[in-house]
Model the fold of this input.
Amino acid sequence: MHTSLDSLERRVLGSLLEKSMAQPDYYPMTEKAIVAACNQKQNRDPVMDLDEGAVWETLESLREKGLVTMLLPGAGARTKRYKHEVEQHYGWQKRERAVMTELLLRGPQTPGELRSRCSRFVPFDDIAAVTIVLECLANAETPMVRALPREPGRSAIRHAHLLYTDDDDELPTITTEEAPVRAVSAPASPQVAPKSEAIEQLQNEVADLRSRVEALESQFNQLMS
Done:
């Protein structure tokens, strides 16, 4: 099982995961659609500017690792499409895929941030539900996430995926005093999301709509070519 991915592999795999859940009508994806998804300005940290050549090479690398499958064009079609294989490779269920998608596309995040951002894929009733998924990923036979040390001035602990390479510039600093992932009991009454989370959720929805338009434009251009 491959557990180290470079920054381009993480972006391409994260984009395939995202679109498979957020826009299943446009999945599996063409190379051009994957390029557009990788280069989105929203829901990405860092923002990238990849060309088709870089994305193609990355798809080939992911195929060699068994994480991506290429589908040949069907009758009347001209373009190859790609799909991820994380369920077969890592065994991630939908909620685990949602959490890992956000960690791959944005880097370390708190359970509250993950709850808000994952809502476009699958609803989480509360932060406790997110923490349970993080705990499952952290305690898997091959751990996939890890809690980071609490940052000065922050009450919430961020969590990072463990698919970084050893020499990765984005590798978060992890010390021996890291906080363990523990499930927390659900609140007695519903919590109202802070205004910043509500705004971010709206931004996520706008980004998804923009991505749908990009996918439709790509399909239109293919039909006209």
